Amino acid sequence: MFELRWSIPLGLWNKPIDLPLIGTINGFGMSVFEVLPIVVVTNILLGIFLYFALDFLVRLFTRVQYIKELYNRIVERTQRKVKPYVKKYGVIGLAIFIGIPLPGSGVWTGALAAYLLGVRFRDFAIACVIGVLIASVLVTAVTLGLLNGL
Question: Each residue of 44-56: pLDDT tens digit?
Answer without folding.
Answer: 999 999 999 998 9
